[in-house]
Write a structure and sequence with these properties.
alpha/beta; homodimer; nine-stranded mixed beta sheet; Four Helix Bundle (Hemerythrin (Met), subunit A)
């Protein structure tokens, strides 16, 4: 491969007629972040130093605002005649790039792994089996001897699909020059065909495009679903909580910040504790609700590329306080005798120590314990499971049994965690 | 500097008459590890690939055992006439090295920072102000124009001190050749003088030598004192606990493993909890004893180069359990009414959460919070302070006040930790 690619052209002059509204498609928000924001963050992480944005001059101000707000830099190329097609947009970028460059569609969403893989190739990145787009709507490609022979939406029996991502050299501009002289509108597909571009297969990685409002919804759901971290999820999380929380996250991702979700969840958790004074049954249900919502901040943060170690840290400490407030108030309201309180203490401390033990492992080893010691995933006693158990036992009236169960279960889990850590460490 | 040094010669054929006993000096244990072990570990970490050991043939088996047991490799050079001096030992190593090499005395202890710095220079590493050796006993050096002009124990008004560490090239063997032909005994000082070696100043870093049994004691104390981690130490630790624990560590470092110390400390802590049933006063004192001993495992581990993230992890979880057992049993024995138990719960959870918050920070950021947010060091409520407070208040009979204080102090500390983390994160 002839050297690293350090510049990218993004075609953002499209008219986006099917979307309605006046916002250029690359500036539409999906799961809390503009499509273009996502691409620019990924390109920066992949070592792309220069960005060329081909836009319509009437959107200049919008794009300039967007870049300034988010601390990005880009060179504009103006296409005053978007009706001349995206091949013409590419043609206009010819004097802004020097040598090889990455070409992306401004209305496509890509995963980091996709772009990393695509940058290793040459020509058009194609996906033989796209998982995240509707094949009927996608642009199809026929390939022979590693080169494109035909391209279009109506191609039957295609070999692969056009991902809208290219690695090109300056020789492509000889082709666009020729086409621009000969015809009014040039589509990229014309350029691809005429140049008989080589293809580079990128299989099974995340990429999708946004053409219609329905696409926007679908893309949001995809991003949130990909944002589930999951390494510390218990069985209740996998079967119930995540199914609900990802739906909520997809709904609110454009409107709620991760911090908003963190504090809202904390508030509801504390409220559940206070509600014990009025109705332990309602409180137990609200506690489970807070457990479901607890996934939302992380999901939104990851889906909107806003994760921060600081956010995770605070969230984790707040979770401990929600558990303490809920269980202490439950025990206080229930009027246990003094002799039973050591069991309450055991249940509460065990709940905190389950988390303490795995987090302290990460502090010591710098690695997620669930990743390092996968067997730990199957040991019951995680927070989602404890909260669900609390709800069920409180609703059934077994409050004393709940504290006994927690006091035993959690400390057994800590013991097992130490043992698994010991075994993992020996290997 | 002409290339990296990747080979080292260690002179270990000395007779060590002043030590008594039959063990060669480099194989004497200081704070749980042989002097030679320490040098070999440091050299490995510094990229030295080849080790040449000059020894007396009668110690061959001892050295071979030592190397095998500890997984080191080295080439032996035998000096059957140690009375001919250490300059002669160096001379014998001439065919075992190729190009530049590091020369170390086998009975010297060096800090990693010392060796790293010494490897950057050329000739004899000298220290103008040694902090860890007795200047009266040390070998003195007179320097002019960056070269040694005189060397010896009795030099008056020396410019610096001989650290026993050299970076030499093969040309040194022309000098030893000449000396070996002319005289029977060659000391290194003869070689240094004759070669008019350049000097390289390494100032204030750790190095010391071991000539007498008293030196051995002093070296052990130095190593243990250097092994205090201290970033999370509270005022009680600094003023009281560390002063006692380092003395204990220095005493037991050759006999007790870090794991032995961890379990012993845990046992004494749990015993303190149980003792509450008999005598809360005695239990409180024993709890403080366990707090002092809590420093020993880490001190021994660091002093004997045996630290492991696994050991730190288990120790930390066990500390939490000691606190839980002690405080819960104290509360149970004291016969608090049910209405007071939420305060007990608050005190206990606060104690765990103080540690949870800083450890979870390290898990999230991969950095020690005390290093990142130094202001945190001055916030009261660390474990050593809580335990000392517990002892004092229990002895004075203020048990209820103890729980109130802990319940308020610890959670305030957690709140302040979150705030300091927030402020640190903004910067």
């Amino acid at each position: 491969m002839p050297g690293n690619v350090t510049q990218a052209v993004i075609l953002a002059a499209g008219q986006g007629k099917r979307m309605g509204g006046s916002t250029p498609k690359p500036l539409l928000r999906v799961a809390g972040r503009e499509i273009l924001y996502r691409s620019l963050v990924l390109l920066r992480d992949l070592g792309i130093e220069k960005i060329v944005l081909v836009i319509h001059p009437r959107h200049r101000e919008r794009f300039e605002e967007f870049l300034t707000e988010n601390g990005f830099a880009a060179e504009f190329v103006f296409n005053e005649a978007p009706e001349r097609g995206n091949g013409y947009s590419l043609h206009l970028a010819r004097s802004a790039v020097d040598g090889r460059f990455l070409l992306l569609m401004g209305d496509h969403l890509y995963g980091e792994d996709f772009l990393r893989e695509a940058l290793r190739g040459e020509g058009l990145a194609v996906d033989p089996k796209p998982r995240y787009v509707d094949p009927d709507e996608a642009t199809k490609v026929a390939i022979r001897d590693g080169r494109v022979t035909a391209i279009g939406k109506d191609l039957t029996d295609p070999d692969a699909y056009d991902t809208g991502c290219f690695v090109l050299g300056p020789e492509i501009f000889a082709v666009t020059e020729e086409l621009a002289a000969a015809q009014m509108a040039i589509e990229l597909s014309d350029v691809v065909c005429r140049a008989r571009l080589p293809v580079h297969e990128v299989r099974g990685k995340f990429w999708t495009d946004v053409d219609t409002p329905a696409d926007l919804h679908r893309a949001r759901r995809l991003l949130v679903a990909r944002a589930v971290k999951g390494t510390g999820d218990g069985i209740i999380s996998r079967l119930i909580n995540r199914k609900i929380s990802t739906r909520i996250s997809a709904l609110v991702a454009n409107r709620l910040t991760p911090w908003g979700a963190t504090w809202l969840t904390f508030g509801i958790g504390v409220l559940a504790g206070a509600l014990n004074a009025v109705s332990p049954a309602a409180a137990a249900v609200l506690y489970q609700v807070s457990s479901i919502l607890d996934g939302v901040d992380g999901e939104i943060a990851r889906a909107s590329l806003r994760t921060s170690p600081f956010g995770g840290w605070v969230d984790s400490v707040l979770d401990r306080y929600v558990d303490i407030v809920y269980l202490t108030s439950l025990a206080a309201v229930h009027g246990f005798p003094a002799g039973f309180w050591p069991v309450v203490v055991g249940a509460l401390l065990g709940s905190v120590l389950v988390s303490y033990t795995t987090e302290r492992y990460r502090a010591a080893f710098g690695e997620d314990m669930y990743r390092e010691v996968p067997a730990l995933r199957f040991v019951p006693g995680k927070r989602d499971e404890r909260i669900f158990l609390a709800m069920v036992l409180v609703l059934l009236g077994f409050v004393q049994e709940l504290f006994w169960t927690l006091a035993i279960l959690t400390h057994l889990r800590v013991l097992l965690t130490l043992f698994l850590g010991y075994r993992g460490n020996r290997r």
